[in-house]
Structures are given as C-alpha cells and as structure tokens.
Design brief:
The protein is mostly beta strands. The protein is built from eleven helices and 41 strands. Helix content is 13%, strand content 33%. The strands form ten sheets. Strands 6, 7, 10, 11, 14, 16, 18, 19, 23 and 24 form a ten-stranded antiparallel β-sheet that branches. Strands 30-29-28-27-26-25-33 form a seven-stranded parallel β-sheet.
C-alpha cells in the first residue's frame, strides 16, 4: 500500500464539491415518517450538511470533509481540493427487523431512507511524490458520502471506494462539524486528553461555553429548536474512535476529533487512520427526540447501524445474567480459594449464572498482576481448577480479570486457548484507556478469538459503546462509565451523576456500572473507602473498611434494572446481602429484556422505566435525586390477577436510614394505579408476576396487555 513518501504532517487538505455540476445542487433525504430532513449542499467553499425537524432547523449548515497526512496519495501539497463534482446520486430505502436476546428489546425495526452522493475530482491533477520530486499524473479520485434518515434520527459516513487513483490513504483528522443555534444547551462530559477511560460525569450548560481545550465524549445531548439530539458514533471498526472539540469562538459548534495513533516506527506522527480502499468511516449519528426521555426509545438505531454477526461464527454460547463479584466490597483483599468458593455458592443460591474473579488471581503470590510479562497462571495457593470445577457443578460460570497488556504479551490466541482449556466462560480485560485505530482493531481481534473459543468479553477501562454488540454478541458489556467502582476512591458517583446516566452513557449501549450495594448511605454522610483508612491490597484489611454506595437501598435495587448490561455484575458481598431486607429482588435477576418502555424522567433528576423479562415477569424501576411521588397506571398488565412485589423507600424510616426499605406484596389488576413515595436520593422497584401464568402474556408491553 503506497501511503507516503516523507513523514511531514503539518499540512492538511479537505475534500469539497464543485457547484458547477447540476447534480451538486442542494440534495436531501427525509425520514420514513417525513418529519426529519437531512440536507446536503455545496458551493465553492466546500460541502455541508444540515438537519431540520417538521421544517424547523436543528443543525445549521455544517462542514464536511477529511484531512489527509502530507505525503499520502490523496495529498496535493498545501492546496485545498475544492473542485470536485457529483458523479452520481443513489437513493434507497429499507425496512427490516432483527432480533436479539441480549439487549433492551427482542425485536428491533431497522427502517430508513438513504442518499449516497458519489464524488469525483473535476479533473485529473498532478501530484508531487516527494519534496523536490517530479510531478506525475494521476487519475481523478473518488469519495462517497452516505446519508441515512430514520424516524429516530440521522446518520452519515465517509466511504472510499476501490479505485485506480490510489491504493491507500492516511487521515490526520475528520473535518465534520455540528453547528447549532447560539442558545443551545447541552449535557457533556469532557476529558483533558484523548487517551482516557471515559469515566467522567456529565454536566449541563451552554454548548457555546464548552472548553475548546477539552475532548468532549459521547454522547452529547443538545437541546435546541424544541427538540433534544444525542450526538454519537456507530459501527466503530477499522477506524479511530472519535471525540468532539468545541469551536472555541463563542459559537455553539462541535468538531470531530479522531484519536491519533500512538507513536511507533510504523506510523506517521499525528495520523489517526491508515486504510486501504474500499474503506469507510463509522457512522456519525444524531438521534432526535422531543426530550431526553423520548430519546431512550430510539437508541436501537445505534446497534442497527452495525453489521450483523459473522455467520461463520457460532454465538449460541452467549447467555446474559447476573454475576457475583469479589473485588468491590474490600478491593479483593481477601481473595482466596475458599473465599471464591463461597462466592460461587452464593451466586448459585441467588440464581445468578456467573461469578467474576477480579485482579490478583494470576502472577506472583500476592504480587503484581498488572501489565505484561507476568505469568498467566494461577498464583501459588489459588486453586483455579478446583474453583471452576465446583462452579460448573453449581451451574455457575467463571469470568477472569486479565490486564490487556498481559493478553497482548501472552498472545491473543494463546490467552483464549488457555481460558478455554481451564473452562472459563468470560474474560474481563482492563486498562485499555485508548480508542485509536490500533486499539479498536485489537478489541475486534479479541472478540473474534474469544468467539472461536466460546468465551464472552467485558472491556474495562475502555472506550464507549458504538453498537458493536450486534456484530459481536460475545462482547456483552464494557465500562466507559462513572460507575460504582469510584466510590472506593472519591465522592464522585453521586445520585446526581447516576440520574444522568440512563440518558447519556446508557443511551449508547450496555455498561458495567456494577450496581447493587447494600451498604447504603446518603451523600451527606458518604466517605470514600480509602479515606476511612482502607489499605488497598492488604489482605489483613477486612470488614471495618468495606465500600459504601450513595443513595437509599431502593435506589440501589432500581439501578440493577434501569442500567443495561447483559453481564449484570452485582458489587456487594454475601455478608451484606444474605438475609437483608430487599435481597429477594435480586434473586434470579434478569440481565436482558424482551421489551423496554421508558415511562418518565429528566436527565440529572429522575427516571422511571418498565421492562419485560423473557420469563414473563414485568419490572418497574424508578430513581430520583429529590423526593417525589410517582404514579404508575397498570394498563400494561394482562387480564387477571398479578402479584406485585414492591421494594421502595419507607416514608417514615428511610429519611433517617438509607438502608431502610419497605418490602410489600399484594395482588393487583390491570386498570389500577399504584403510587410510590420516593425519598431524597431514593427509588422504587416493583416486580409483577402473573398469578396462574400462561404464555398468553408474551409481549404485553408492546401489545398493551392483550
């Protein structure tokens, strides 16, 4: 592949369009319901896209383009490539469905209208091969812009078809923009560098005031023009992950920022993507809703933009479910064979199909197990073979934590061969902290190797979800979330932070938040574990310094249903679960859903959702930052009598004790209304089970109870 002749990358060029071509007039594509209209236009200054809903502008005309590294075949010195013409325009429509048992709903409708604009240079140009070298002729180069309009939102991507003009290219960045009205408000999360675990909280403020020095994560929720948009990307594969950057000129504008490749002898400084045509970027997505709650019923679009699984791979081994965990309560200070066997027994007792063994099981005896060059074998005194055999007899699968650099140093194929030989069902790999093209490719190689060995994957310290769980069903969850783990180290995962997550991070896809603590305290009384004298990694440090979680017990239980993760890792220890008020809500906890219906909410304040499990049970989960009363009309129930088991804040006891919870059970019928009085930082969870259940109740949420 011919990419460069010298490694100078200070200059970049962009692709634009020539207005002279008749086909280069303004083009548009509308959503199937006609409400959304995505526009494309060009003139001598380049190409732009825009978005309107019901005729009202949401995204102002915004630039499109890509920047090529100096020295790549698509580079023309410092010249701006502005003279391109529309070679062809293709239109298409599609209306299909696909199914999954690992997500928010079983059946997903994928319906869109598509506009593909094929571009070609207006005339063949000469290009210098290197500094001071002779100019040589080349053929006109081609680029295709693909736009899709769904009822739920819009998406676009750059595609580089196979062509005689060049056989490879290197991108330094993407020149896409998102321009909004000056008064647009936004929920954003920002990072100091492009290399981050993407675990910062979301905050709301004027989009124009976002710090241009920061890298803005995904999604960005933008409130403008009487609508709310969620900006994100989908189908990240063979490319660099993207953040946003604020324009920094006082305008409400975001610009693409591709993650750069790490410095290495094989890469050019500042380069983000090296590719061989045919190649295509991820989709740039804007979900569009009336408000943030409306968006929650539209995020299937992200997964739908990803390709289906490779038919040559068998993913029938992938099974959602809850997992016990050994790390959070006391940072794995008591990790041992006997302790792990006890945790496996508790998982079996609770009807959870998994247990996760976290850091400390491999390497040296109670020594380092981070990074590469550590023996990938059970440390002395930790009997992994006995644990896995015992777990298998109990119907519990074992997940194993492994640092990503350890996998790389041992070798991806060899690592998964060992895991399969040992009998592990999943790997939790950690500390990736990058979303450059190399890391994106590494994650795909891991998913493929794991799939061949019938092993599931949980990426921690990783980049956000882009819907890849459709392509790789064994990639059941990932982190990239301000989760419960942070309660060990600082007061960060507050109820306010948690109240934004359903509308932001979980909008993108599953996340391993690790909810469900029964050590519940109000934020005013919260002290991080390390601030209480906890000694991380000291196996003599036991129960007096266990971790705690902010919010009431009902708040903690509701999050176990509100938050999406086909591997629902429950954080606390058997000593605090067994026999405690509310623990029955976690018995046989579903981790994937036949259907999901957001009921009401407001980002950063409260959220309530209805979900249908595959066994016919219905779940209602609500959390709030400030006390409020919520009413739930039971019109979603089928005919006949139902048992409602409720776990909610006790209006008398809970205000004084965050652990206090009211556990009640009663018979209810369709047509009734039940009410829940949520305390500050509180919640409610209700489980509805049909008495004398029959298969008639399948899909009750979608069929209105018929």
């Amino acid at each position: 592949m011919k990419i460069m002749s010298f490694a100078v990358v200070a200059l970049s060029v962009s692709l634009g369009l020539c207005a002279a071509d008749a086909l280069a007039a303004a083009l548009s594509v509308a959503s199937p319901d006609g409400r959304l209209s995505l526009g494309f236009e060009t003139d001598a200054q380049g190409m732009r896209w825009s978005l309107a809903r019901d005729g009202r502008e949401l995204v102002k005309p915004s630039s499109l383009g890509v920047a090529f590294a100096v020295g790549s075949p698509l580079e023309k010195g410092a010249e701006r490539l502005a003279e391109m013409r529309v070679r062809n325009v293709r239109r298409a429509s599609s209306d299909t469905t696909w199914t999954t048992q690992l997500s928010r709903r079983e059946t997903v409708r994928d319906r869109f209208n598509e506009l593909a604009v094929e571009l070609e240079e207006a005339e063949a140009r000469a290009v210098r091969v290197g500094l001071g070298q002779t100019e040589v002729e080349r053929l006109p180069r081609r680029l295709t812009l693909v736009f899709r309009a769904y009822d739920e939102g819009v998406a676009f991507r750059y595609a580089f078809p196979e062509q005689a003009a060049f056989d490879g290219f290197a991108l330094t960045d993407e020149l896409s923009e998102w321009r909004f009205a000056a008064d647009a408000q936004a929920w954003t999360t920002a990072y100091a560098t492009e290399r981050d675990q993407q675990e910062e909280p979301y905050t709301r403020g004027p989009l124009a005031a976002v710090d241009p020095k920061k890298y803005v994560g995904m999604p960005v929720l933008v409130e403008t023009g009487g609508a709310t948009l969620a900006l994100c990307e989908a189908a990240l594969s063979g490319w660099a992950g993207m953040n946003f950057r604020a324009a920094g000129d006082g305008a409400a504008t975001l610009r693409a920022a591709l993650a750069k490749l790490p410095p290495s002898p094989a890469s050019m400084p500042g380069v983000a993507v090296i590719a061989t045509p045919p190649a295509q970027s991820p989709w740039r997505v804007a979900l569009v809703g009336d408000d943030e709650t409306d968006l929650l019923g539209k995020n299937d679009l992200i997964a739908s933009l990803n390709p289906p699984p490779d038919p040559s791979l068998d993913f029938s081994f992938v099974r959602p479910g809850a997992s016990s965990w050994d790390w959070w309560a006391e940072s794995n200070n008591s990790l041992s064979t006997e302790r792990t066997l006890a945790l496996v027994d508790f998982a079996a007792e609770m009807g959870w199909p998994y247990h996760t063994v976290d850091g400390g099981w491999y390497g040296f005896a109670r020594g380092p197990n981070h990074g590469p060059n550590v023996p990938l074998r059970p440390r002395r005194g930790f009997d992994l073979a006995r644990i896995i055999a015992h777990a298998k007899a109990k119907g519990v699968g074992i997940w194993l934590w492994i640092h990503w650099m350890e996998i790389e140093s041992v070798g991806i194929e060899e690592t998964f061969a060992r895991l399969a030989d040992w009998g592990a069902v999943g790997v939790k790999t950690d500390f990736l902290e990058r979303q450059d093209q190399e890391m994106v490719d590494w994650c795909e190689r891991v998913c493929r190797a794991a799939a061949k060995r019938r092993i599931m994957v949980n990426f921690h310290g990783s980049f956000k979800s882009t819907g890849g769980e459709r392509t790789w069903p064994n990639m059941v969850t990932r982190e990239a979330v301000c989760g419960n783990e942070m309660n060990i180290f600082r007061k960060k995962t507050t109820p306010e932070v948690c109240a934004a997550l359903p509308f932001t991070r979980f909008l993108l896809g599953p996340a391993d938040f690790t909810p469900g603590s029964f050590a519940n305290v109000y934020s005013r009384d919260f002290v991080p574990q390390v601030a209480k004298g906890h000694r991380y990694g000291d196996e003599t440090d036991r129960c007096p310094h266990w971790a705690e979680e902010m919010g009431t017990r009902a708040h903690a239980l509701a999050q176990c249903v509100q938050f999406d993760s086909p591997l629902m890792t429950l954080c606390d220890a058997p000593e605090r679960y067994r026999g405690a008020d509310g623990v029955e809500a976690l018995r046989g906890l579903p981790a994937a859903w036949r259907d999901t219906r957001p009921v009401e909410g407001k980002c950063g304040e409260y959220y309530a959702v209805l979900r249908e499990a595959f066994d016919g049970r219905l779940y209602y989960a609500a959390t709030t930052v400030r006390r409020r009363e919520l009413a739930l009309a039971l019109d979603f129930l089928g005919e006949g009598e139902w048992t409602m088991d409720a776990y909610a804040d006790d209006p008398v006891r809970t205000p004084a004790d965050a652990k206090a919870i009211a556990c009640t059970s009663r018979t209810v019928r369709r047509g009734e209304t039940v009410r829940f009085a949520l305390c500050d930082e509180g919640g409610a969870l209700a489980v509805f089970t049909r008495r004398r259940w029959t298969p008639r109740i399948k899909y009750v949420l979608r069929q209105g109870g018929k």
